[in-house]
Design goal:
alpha+beta; about 775 residues; single chain; 20 helices; eight-stranded mixed beta sheet; 27 strands
Length: about 775
């Protein structure tokens, strides 16, 4: 689903599809949606006309929901009417109709419809939540907050965003409601802990109430949380455990045995998994599915030691076992099963995993990424097999999916085909970290599988600040910090919970490498155009304008997204948050290609997070299909219409990225070196070509220091002193330099002649062959 596309009605779709197929036959264009298959494909597959009775009614309802999401409201209403004719009491039908009214800008009529649902069922939570939104749209903010309060207290899955939304309705209702708004935020803090968005919202309300000391205390509490995370101290477990998603099935085998049944229990059959989730240096979650309910059993063994059973009572079909108190960077063998058949358990599958390194160690880390991989086709199989052949026996440290993980609608069956059937061995041995794309639909009652299928860390249990939301989260692997955002469904404003959390999470990161990923690319001229504010309902624009500035200020190194069905990779970029026409040369921190063996890698000043030190933006949306675009965004140094995946290798202060096509050929690659790593690149060809800083002495300096640099061959060079934000402090010299070693002194003064303040600074050497930097300290 691309929210920006104004698709033709199905009455005209045949002619559109003919032209599309003609274009595809010559490789000229993609689907009418640009990057995504026409929704008509999904509509046709539902084929309600070929069904009868309740099955046909359900198909009409599902088709109507897809049409509603595509804003084909008349078509949706017609299908709801057909569904009602076949099954007047079909669950979800009245709610879908009411949601359609709100979508069409009829909140009063929607409110009346929701009232009717609640009158028939006082516990119809979705209707109560819908009525709250309808009332808010009419300016009935106090009444909306009351409804939302009722929904928050009864719903199975709520997030801090819900508490903030209710508080903001009350704030907008007027000063008389501020105390109630503050109590609601405090209720959220009690439930989820000191989440950044909640603390900031509480601080702002306290300030509006004139409670300035209390407002400051709220922000001090946030600072304490940031400091705790930087010390890698675990947070108290506050977030409730997820409820089982298992549907009731046949009689429970374990219970039957406990009741003394003489009949042998039914042998459960493994239908999904095992698959690994939310893995950290001391924990991991193992999930699987069985065809009948049974209890959950994991046998865990370290090396050749005897296995330890972990039992979770309760008979379910979707099993989720959290293992804690594990050792970092250790390999564990495990098997999954049940106790229902005998005391030793029946093993469904046996595999192994390696826990993440503890935060801090700089050893090698390998990450594999797929983007828009949701078509379970031979194309995806080739991409998968090409990587596996290239990777050999190397174990992955993480496996990321960048959204649109299962076409067309992200339903359970879509995920079975595109994820679990395609990657069974990988999922059993490596933790999968997903983000949500626009095809991973969540609109109840029909599409809500993404959050049921995956387990994301919400309490900072895998590193980073707690988010209390599975929509956005973070995790650490050794010396790498990953941040996952939700560009599809979460609030994308600067004052929204997600981006407030992002700021605090990045502020808390003490890792030298920081990588962000989400679905909608800030920059793309593939099958989606990031310059077009209508494309994807402005999601690409929002993430560029708002999230991009946060990443820049926090010194993030790499941002990876999907959505456009192509591969694109930028220069090392900073300060560019507008359309492509606003790009200037100064926004390219490094105008080189970043390739080892070519003009050289990207260089970054500091060894950690240095603000405005440059970010490489990468688009990977071609893991299962490729679609045409102009492919000419000026921030991009590489734009390819090729199937493929990305491999990241990070060791010490060096990051290497490769785009592997479906034949296992690296069509693009780049490297980023940080700090001291710049002085000793691995590739001898780079060392031969690139000028380099040899030494700074004394370091730390008081009155002055001598900077020694080497020019492998004659050429232009510029030597500067810069601060950690990348701002020039002093230009020391610039011009033509002979080959050989050169020495220049710095007296600790700025260009203005004033002494610099004590702190950390960087010597920066720039030339046509590359850049080199070194860190040093200035004392009193």
């Amino acid at each position: 689903m691309t929210g920006s596309d104004r698709r033709p009605s199905r009455r005209n779709v045949s002619s559109v599809l003919c032209s599309v197929l003609f274009g595809l036959s010559f490789g000229l264009l993609g689907s009418p949606a640009g990057a995504h298959p026409p929704i008509e494909d999904a509509l046709r597959r539902l084929a309600p006309e070929a069904l009868t009775g309740t099955a046909a009614a359900r198909a009409y309802l599902e088709r109507g929901e897809l049409e509603r999401l595509e804003r084909e409201w008349d078509l949706a209403l017609a299908d709801y009417t057909r569904a009602e004719a076949l099954a007047p009491s079909l669950p979800g039908l009245d709610l879908a109709r009411a949601e359609l009214l709100l979508d069409r800008g009829q909140p009063a009529t929607c409110e009346a419809a929701a009232d009717g649902i609640v009158a028939r069922d006082a516990n119809a939570l979705r209707a109560i939540e819908l009525r709250a939104r309808a009332r808010a749209a009419q300016g009935m903010l106090g009444e909306a907050a009351r409804d939302y309060d009722r929904w928050i207290h009864a719903a199975a899955r709520v997030t801090p965003d819900d508490f903030i939304r209710r508080a903001r309705w009350l704030e907008a209702a007027g000063p008389a409601y501020l105390d109630e708004a503050l109590r609601g935020i405090d209720a959220g803090i009690t439930r989820f802990g000191p989440i950044a968005g909640l603390l900031i919202e509480a601080s702002e309300i306290e300030s509006r109430l004139g409670h300035f000391a209390e407002s400051r205390a709220r922000l001090d509490r946030l600072d304490e949380e940031i400091a705790r995370v930087r010390r890698h101290e675990p947070a108290p477990q506050r977030v409730p455990q997820r409820a089982s998603t298992a549907a009731p099935r046949a009689p429970v085998t374990t219970a039957a045995r406990a009741a003394g049944s003489s009949d042998p229990p039914t042998q459960p059959v493994l239908t999904r998994g095992p698959y690994l989730q939310a893995g950290g240096s001391s924990r991991i979650v193992i999930r699987w599915r069985t065809d009948v309910p049974c209890d959950s059993r994991v046998e865990l063994a370290l090396d050749d030691n005897p296995s330890i059973p972990v039992l979770v009572p309760g008979d379910v079909t979707d099993h989720e076992v959290e293992l804690t108190d594990l050792g970092p960077a250790m390999e564990y063998k495990y098997s999954i099963g049940t106790t229902c058949c005998d005391v030793t358990g029946i093993t469904f599958a046996s595999s192994s995993f390696v826990t993440a390194p503890a935060p801090g160690p700089m050893g090698p880390t390998r990450v594999w990424l797929l983007g828009d991989s949701g078509f379970p086709t031979p194309d995806l199989a080739r991409v998968r097999d090409a990587f596996l052949h290239w990777n050999g026996v190397h174990r992955l440290d993480a496996f990321l999916m960048l959204g649109d993980n299962a076409y067309n609608n992200g339903t359970d069956s879509d995920y079975q085909a595109a994820v679990f059937n395609m990657f069974p061995t990988l999922l059993a041995q490596h933790v999968l970290w997903p983000t949500r794309g626009n095809h991973d639909l969540l609109y109840a009652p029909l599409f809500s599988d993404y959050y049921d299928i995956f387990s994301m860390p919400t309490a900072g249990e895998c590193g980073g600040m707690p988010s209390a939301s599975e929509a956005y989260y973070s995790f650490d692997i050794g010396h790498v910090h990953f941040v996952c955002l939700d560009s599809e469904g979460s609030d994308r404003t600067r004052s929204g919970p997600m981006l407030r959390w992002l700021e605090s999470d990045l502020a808390a990161s003490s890792q030298p490498w920081n990588i962000a990923f989400w679905h909608h690319p800030p920059y793309s001229k593939g099958s989606h155009d990031s310059d077009n504010p209508i494309d994807s309902d402005g999601r690409m624009r929002d993430m560029r304008q708002v999230a991009g500035g946060i990443l820049d200020s926090a010194g993030v190194d790499l941002m990876i997204s999907g959505h456009s069905h192509s591969y694109e990779r930028s220069y090392l970029l900073r300060g560019h948050y507008g359309v492509s026409a606003t790009l200037t040369s100064a926004m390219k921190v490094d105008s080189l290609a970043g390739r080892i063996g070519g003009t050289g890698p990207y260089h970054k000043f500091g060894e950690g997070r240095t603000p405005l030190d440059g970010i490489v933006y990468t688009v990977l949306g071609s893991s299962s299909s490729v679609h045409f675009g102009t492919m000419n965004h000026p921030v991009m140094i590489s734009s390819l219409l090729s199937l493929g995946s990305i491999v990241l290798d990070i060791e010490g202060l060096r990051l290497d990225a490769r785009f592997l096509n479906d034949q296992g050929v690296a069509l693009d690659s780049f490297a980023i070196f940080k700090g001291a790593a710049l002085a000793a690149p691995r590739d001898a060809r780079v060392a031969d070509l690139a000028p380099r800083l040899r030494s700074i002495a004394p370091n730390p300096m008081r009155a002055a220091s001598s900077i020694v640099y080497v020019m492998p061959r004659a050429g232009d060079a510029r030597i500067s002193v810069v601060d950690p934000a990348g701002r020039r402090v002093r230009l020391l010299e610039s011009g033509r330099r002979a080959a050989g070693a050169h020495t220049i002194a710095w007296d600790g003064r700025r260009d203005s002649g004033h002494r610099v303040t004590p702190g950390v600074y960087f010597a920066l050497l720039e030339s046509g062959a590359g850049r080199s930097s070194a860190r040093f300290a200035v004392l009193e």
